[in-house]
């Protein structure tokens, strides 16, 4: 565990400059090969960018948008803004035009950093575009390369100017405005201070012991506060960080890099589980029989139990399951949504060190997390050291912590609704806390559905079970004011190789497999919870068409509007 000595994100950069040079600090792919940027090279680029950005007029508290894919360039630009005391506003790459326009206006953006031209030609003329590897004609435009050249000249004239900037940044200043993904409506701009983000690093540092030799693989968007906080933690340890250029290459990069630490969302683990299950089912003979036994053992046994048989399974079977992860993983942190308890148990039993956490953008984000020697499948772990929690009378989880946001930008009334007079943040999630302090999230308050017969339905748990099928990417349970439960099942487009999805899922054999899966889900549900009818949605869904948020979560309200006619056919 490192002894931290910084209070702001600007001071985090200064702290990094005092650490030994790591020649493989930041690594990016170009022409299928990884190229490295050392710690000292990164330090130099941030210094130059900070001086150049200040010289072209960016001042403390100015809001600047980052609209680019995760990369060393993204990080250098973000840190440069922090040294100035400007406020970075990260935007998801695949944001809708409507939300893009709203967020620029809501934060009064006058400068935008980007590595692509999507939406750029439609923004107001007065907005300055700073481009990384692109050129936008007929716009106010400057390249990163031009800024670096300008910054180098300024640095040579006054190398102490950056130090003065860092000292001017205070922990109560706003570090970033992070927009929620808008799965229930208009995005909200969450104002996070330097104290918010830094408090997270101090707490995380208490639970996860990081070795200098660790390699981290990064593929989640930096516009999401979960990955931004994790990335800040990596940086504070001067780790070797490897970016994945495309989500389609994650499996390839995992084997190539052989990382020691990664952060994932449950959907990735669900897809990996489905592939493992499929491979096991295809094996035959004695080898297939052993694989099936080992698979079932991993699904059901208590992770704390260990027998001689488990040792055999680990050597013969589980080691093969783990090959796709690269072979060196020491820490796999999952967040963003709940990981199914059975899958959590399975991965722990095959030897994958999975640790589920929970948090919200408004809490910077981590509220609780499982960690080595304190890991209970099916829970989100224990509250961080400086986080206080309690349950309201209706079991809503309430939080007090140094990570709780300053507020929602331009929305004081909404801020007052979620942060009460005693400083408790109301998460909107229903939870339970066991005798050991482990927190389990049951559902969103608004996702407890009520049928017309007065029965309550936990939609989230049913949807999680339905999407365990390799054929189903997303599920939306319908039950509010209805006489029974139905579901929209959005199919996995990737599995229909060489055939359009509609034709593939019209196959009688595929439909029988899906029906069998729905039946198995229903088997463990109460009578009033069972999915009576469902509809397969075979057309592609996206952010632009309205079904998904930029963080790839389903927008249930929008889905119910878009597929209203389909829903009505089930009743």
Strand content: 15-25%
**Largest beta-sheet characterization:** 9 strands, mixed
Give the radius of gyration.
24 Å
The CATH homologous superfamily of one domain corresponds to ANL, N-terminal domain
CATH class of one domain: Alpha Beta
Distance between the termini: 58 Å
How would you describe this protein?
It contains 19 helices and 26 strands. Helices cover 37% and strands 21% of the residues. Among the domains are: 9-169 and 208-257, Rossmann fold (3-Layer(aba) Sandwich), CATH 3.40.50; 451-569, GMP Synthetase, Chain A, domain 3 (2-Layer Sandwich). With 571 residues, the protein is α/β, with parallel strands linked by helices. The strands form six sheets. It has a nine-stranded mixed beta sheet with strand order 2-1-11-10-12-13-14-15-16, sandwiched between helices. A five-stranded parallel beta sheet has the order 4-3-5-6-7. Strands 17-18-20-21 form a four-stranded antiparallel beta sheet. The radius of gyration is 24 Å and the shape is globular. Helix 7 (194-207) packs across helix 8 and helix 10 runs antiparallel to helix 11.
Which SSEs are present, and which pair or pack?
Blueprint: H1 9-17, E1 26-30, E2 33-37, H2 39-55, E3 63-67, H3 72-84, E4 87-90, H4 97-106, E5 111-114, E6 128-131, E7 141-143, H5 144-157, H6 161-168, E8 174-179, E9 189-193, H7 194-207, E10 215-218, H8 225-236, E11 240-243, H9 250-257, E12 261-264, H10 266-282, H11 285-300, H12 308-321, E13 331-334, H13 341-350, E14 354-359, E15 366-369, E16 382-383, E17 388-391, E18 396-400, E19 407-408, H14 412-418, E20 425-433, E21 439-444, E22 448-450, E23 456-458, H15 459-466, E24 472-478, E25 485-491, H16 501-504, H17 508-523, E26 531-537, H18 556-562, H19 564-569
Parallel strand pairs: 1-11, 3-4, 3-5, 5-6, 6-7, 10-11, 10-12, 12-13, 13-14, 25-26
Antiparallel strand pairs: 1-2, 8-9, 9-19, 14-15, 15-16, 17-18, 18-20, 20-21, 22-23, 24-25
Helix pairs in contact: 1-3, 2-3, 2-5, 7-8, 10-11, 11-12, 11-13
């Amino acid at each position: 565990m490192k002894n931290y000595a910084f209070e702001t994100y600007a001071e985090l950069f200064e702290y990094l400059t005092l650490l030994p040079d790591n020649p493989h600090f930041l690594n990016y792919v170009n022409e299928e090969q990884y190229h490295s940027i050392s710690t000292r090279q990164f330090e130099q680029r941030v210094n130059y960018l900070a001086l150049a950005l200040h010289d072209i007029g960016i001042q403390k508290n100015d809001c600047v948008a980052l609209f680019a894919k995760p990369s060393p360039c993204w990080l250098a630009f973000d840190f440069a803004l922090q040294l100035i005391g400007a406020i970075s506003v990260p935007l998801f790459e695949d944001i809708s035009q409507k939300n893009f326009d709203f967020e620029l206006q809501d934060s009064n953006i006058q400068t935008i950093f980007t590595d692509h031209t999507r939406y750029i030609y439609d923004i107001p003329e007065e907005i300055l575009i700073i481009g990384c590897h692109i050129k936008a004609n007929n716009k106010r435009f400057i390249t990163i390369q031009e800024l670096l050249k300008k910054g180098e000249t300024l640095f040579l004239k006054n190398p102490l100017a950056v130090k003065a900037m860092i000292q001017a940044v205070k922990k109560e200043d706003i570090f970033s405005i992070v927009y929620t993904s808008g799965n229930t409506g208009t995005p909200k701009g969450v104002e996070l201070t330097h104290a918010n983000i830094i408090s997270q690093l101090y707490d995380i540092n208490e639970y996860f012991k990081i070795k200098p030799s660790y390699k981290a693989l990064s593929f989640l968007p930096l516009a999401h506060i979960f990955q931004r906080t994790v990335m800040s933690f990596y940086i504070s340890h001067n780790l070797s960080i490897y970016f994945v250029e495309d989500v389609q290459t994650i499996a390839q990069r995992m084997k190539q890099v052989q990382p020691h630490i990664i952060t994932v969302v449950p959907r990735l683990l669900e897809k990996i589980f489905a592939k493992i299950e499929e491979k096991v089912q295809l094996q035959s003979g004695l080898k297939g029989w052993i694989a099936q036994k080992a698979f079932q053992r991993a699904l059901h046994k208590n992770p704390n139990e260990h027998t001689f048989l488990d040792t055999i399974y680990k050597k013969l079977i589980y080691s093969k399951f783990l090959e796709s992860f690269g072979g060196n993983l020491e820490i796999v942190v999952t967040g963003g949504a709940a990981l199914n308890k059975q899958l959590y148990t399975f991965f722990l039993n095959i030897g994958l060190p999975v640790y589920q956490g929970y948090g919200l953008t408004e809490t910077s984000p981590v509220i609780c997390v499982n960690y080595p020697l304190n890991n209970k499948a099916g829970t989100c772990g224990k509250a961080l050291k400086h986080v206080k929690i309690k349950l309201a009378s209706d079991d809503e989880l309430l939080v007090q912590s140094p990570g709780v946001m300053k507020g929602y930008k331009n929305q004081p009334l909404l801020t007052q609704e979620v942060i009460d007079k005693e400083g408790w943040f109301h998460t909107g999630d229903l939870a339970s806390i066991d005798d050991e302090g482990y927190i389990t999230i049951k559902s969103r308050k608004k996702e407890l559905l009520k049928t017309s017969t007065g029965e309550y339905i936990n939609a989230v748990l049913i949807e999680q079970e339905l999407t365990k099928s390799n054929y189903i990417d997303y599920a939306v349970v319908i039950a509010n004011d209805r006489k029974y439960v139905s579901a929209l099942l959005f199919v996995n487009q990737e599995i229909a190789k060489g055939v359009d999805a509609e034709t593939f899922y019209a196959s009688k054999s595929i439909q029988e497999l899906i029906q069998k899966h729905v039946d198995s889900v229903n088997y463990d549900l109460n009578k009033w919870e069972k999915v009576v009818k469902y509809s397969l949605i075979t057309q592609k869904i996206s952010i632009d068409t309205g079904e998904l948020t930029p963080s790839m979560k389903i927008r249930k309200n929008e889905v119910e509007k878009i597929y209203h006619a389909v829903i009505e056919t089930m009743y």
